[in-house]
Amino acid sequence: MGKGWLDFRSGAERERDYHEFSERVFSGGILHRRQVRERLQEILRKKDITYELMYYVALKDLLVRRPSLSFEEGLSQVCSEIHVMRLNSTVKDAIRKVLEEDFAGKFNSGQNDHDEKTQ
Description:
The protein is 61% helix and 0% strand. The protein has one domain (29-114). It has helices spanning 11-25, 29-44, 50-65, 71-81, 89-103. It has 5 helices and no strands. α3 (50-65) packs across α4. The chain starts with 10 loop residues before the first helix and ends in a 16-residue tail after the last helix. By secondary structure, the chain is mainly alpha-helical.
């Protein structure tokens, strides 16, 4: 698997990996993604949550792939790899709340096995 601009995978491999990633993070499809985005916007009271959503997606993907990680451990790892903004406590709390709701199935994601890890 490639990372960044040095990616030697075929188009079919990239497509397959993206589909698997999308299914892990937003198992309810486009509607699921839209609901998560809208919930983050509602909690943070701002329209453009592009960067916050980037952290959310990276963290959820990590927690789904490694369910033994706690929210704090996962967030620390994500923050060490993504450097587009500094997450303040308001943003961290919003991400935690939406993750809890997502893992509890509020967004029709079907992911119910990780809700205790975000607490």
